[in-house]
C-alpha cells in the first residue's frame, strides 16, 4: 500500500510564505541599516532601491504615500536606517522591504536635527524678512565673533582695514568648534551688542558639518535674533548653510565677503567724491557760461528795444518808405511814357491802314477781271483732261461691250498661250462677272469651238 504525497502549486507556496512573513511580528516592524544602491525614482512616485552591507543585500520599495515624509533625496552610497516591514512579492517569488520611513545614519542624524530645528525656527518666524535689520553704510566700529587665530579672522581684519584704514574692530575670541562653542559664540554676540558697535560679523572658516555644528544650535540662533545690532553670518564656504545663516540679517559666503559687505570701500568712495566734485565743477562752469550768454542776449535785446534803437528803427522805416515812393513815382512816369508811345504808334498805324484801303479800292476791279479770266482758262483745260481720262478708263471699255478676262490667280489674260484646258477663268462685264472653264484653245489663224 503506497503513501500518497501532497503536491502544491507555486502560487500556494508563495502565498504560504507571504502569510508567514505577515504573521511574524519581528518582520512587520523592523529597522534595517545599510547602504543605498540602485536607487530609482519612478514616474509613479515610488522609490525603488537596494539596501546592502558587506555580506548581503535586500530589495526595498517606498511607496509614493510614504515618500511625502522623506525630507531628503535618496542617493546611491548613503548610509541610512530604514523602518518598515518585510513582505513577499508572490508573483515574482521574492521578498523585499517595504519602507515606511528612512533617516540618515551617523551624520544623517545631524541632518535630521538640523532640519528639525530649521523647521521649528521657521514656524516661529525667526527667518522672516520682516525681522531683518538693514546693514548700515560708513560704519566706524565693527564687532567680530570668531576664533582669535586662523584664516577667518585674518581675512576679516585685512579686508576691513584695506577698505577703511580708520575703522575700529572689536574682536571677541570665541570657541567655534567643540564642547561649549555654541555658548561662547552666543556670549560674544550679546557682549558686542551691548557695546553698541555698528555691525557684527559672526563666523568661522570651512569644515565638516560636525565642525560647523555650533552655528546650528538654538542658543546661537536666539542670540542673533534678539540682538539689536545688524549681524552678518559668514560660516564656512559658499556651499555651507547653517541655522545662523537663516537667522542673520545678511549672509556672506565667506568671511572675506562678510568684511566687504560690512565695511564700505572708503578709497572708492573718496575717488567717487572726487569724480563728483570734478563733474559738479564742470557743470557749474557750463552753467555760468550759459548764464553769461543769456545775459548778453538780454543786453542786446534791451539795447535794441531802447529809445536809440527805436529811433534807428523808425529812421530805417522812413528811408524804406522814401525809396518805395521814389520807385513808385518812377514806375508811374515810365508807364505814362509807354502809353504815349503806344498812342502815337496807334495813330501811325491807322494812317497806314487808310492808305492801304485806298490802294485796295483802286486795284480791286482789275484783280477781279484777271481772276475771272484765269478761272475760265483753267475750266477749259479741266474738261479736256476729263475726256481723256474717260477714254482710258476700263469701265468705259466695258460699257462699249468689251470684257476683262483674268485667270484663277486674278492676273489679266493677255494671250491664249498662257492658258491650259480645264483652267478656271473670271470674266468681268459691264454689269457683273461670271466664271468659265477653258474647253478648247484656238490660236490665231485656227478655228475651234468657243470657250464655255
TrEMBL record:
Residues 8-102 form the OB-fold nucleic acid binding domain. It holds the Pfam family Exonuc_VII_L. Residues 126-436 form the Exonuclease VII large subunit C-terminal domain. It is found in: Cytoplasm. It is an enzyme of class 3 (hydrolase). The keyword Nuclease applies. It catalyses: Exonucleolytic cleavage in either 5'- to 3'- or 3'- to 5'-direction to yield nucleoside 5'-phosphates. It comes from the Bacteria. Its EC number is 3.1.11.6. InterPro entries: Exonuc_VII_L, Exonuc_VII_lsu_C, OB-fold_nuc-bd_dom. Heterooligomer composed of large and small subunits. Belongs to the XseA family. Bidirectionally degrades single-stranded DNA into large acid-insoluble oligonucleotides, which are then degraded further into small acid-soluble oligonucleotides. This is Exodeoxyribonuclease 7 large subunit. The gene is xseA.
